[in-house]
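User: Need the bound-state model for histidyl-adenosine monophosphate:
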Amino acid sequence: MAIQIPRGTQDILPGDVEVWQYIEKIVREVCSTYQYKEVRTPIFEHTELFQRGVGDTTDIVQKEMYTFKDRGDRSITLRPEGTASTVRAFVENKLYGQPTQPTKLYYIGPMFRYERPQAGRMRQFHQFGVEALGSNDPALDAEVLALAINIYSKLGLKKLKLVINSLGDNESRTAHRDALVEHFKPRIGEFCSDCQGRLEKNPLRILDCKKDRDHELMGTAPAILEFLNEESHAYFEKVKAYLTAMGIQFEVDSTLVRGLDYYNHTTFEIMSEAEGFGAITTLAGGGRYNGLVEDIGGPETPGIGFGFGIERVVMALQAENTSYPTQEGIDCYVVAMGPEAELKAVQLLNELRQNGIHAEKDYQGKKMKAQFKSANRLQATYTAVLGDTELEQQVINVKHMETGEQEQIALDKFIEYMKKVTQ
Ligand code: HAM
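Assistant: Bound-state model below.
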């Protein structure tokens, strides 16, 4: 039996890959206008990075990581997300010492989570993310959000909803944490064993539980926004004011809980409201993570960022019927008949390509008629026909496929001619 692809992964084939390249192109262009620079980190890291970075009590670390021992008996994990790796690279390469701060980075690449696959949820998926490190300015929170929205709107997505929340600073979080323990403790026996473990370690995670999400205590749990101290409240107000100033619409949802432990202050998600998008509507998620750089061994440095799944953007583009580039046709198909014409055709084809002209020929010994068929299949704008007679007269017959117009061009003028007509 033929070997099949692992569950939760996919091949992105020609015909589909064009939309990926298009998304990546827009992402890079927008990042450049906002002055975010690309960083490329390894696909695997020491397991401890994610235990410390993403958090020991999260589903990602407890259930979803691809962790294995390498031949040197080290515990290695395929990265489940990009923030921890980016922060490690920031610390390890001492980017905090560079004169321009904050350090604004972005990444695009595969991430791995052992989840139950369904539409929009893969085991290998691709994330674009940004991380801005070294500033506590709420304007930066708003900038990161604006960048995400700007990418989506450049791609033509319209049916979006931005939901924001604040987890506040440590003091606010501790007050909220205590209230959560008090809320859940008397009836914790009714919750799953994971939640029972979470009660003392990290009660906020209970609110993110997939098994117990319908328990009546979930809806009545104390909301973080009521526990924000003055400073955290003022910070959140500023973020909202900046968003409003930029004309970015948002909803505040005090029940928004993210699946990773490193957040404080601003957290957010962007959902697709397109009909037919599917059950999982979150396109992007992110937030502020002051404290993470210290946790990973660096100097005290605030940070904020977000990540979005490229698979989900592709789904959203399809759900909104947005137009995007698909496979393109070629400029010229060179039809050659006879061994000498073949020799010349190979030379001409190479010259066409050197001049930036998209060109192709037959490699399967096809007859003339079949070669024209191939030209049509490749959506060639022109065909250039070279047989023994043409070669003798040092000419080539160029045909515009759509109009049917033909011209005989001197062989030594052919490249110049093609350059002119394909400009
Ligand atoms: P996250 O919410 O775990 O956050 O993931 C961000 C986005 O990645 C999701 O909204 C979704 O689009 C995509 N995604 C996640 N898991 C899957 C999956 N199994 N299949 C397909 N797409 C998926 C983070 O990863 C944080 N590092 C974001 C961040 C950056 N926060 C601060 N900086």
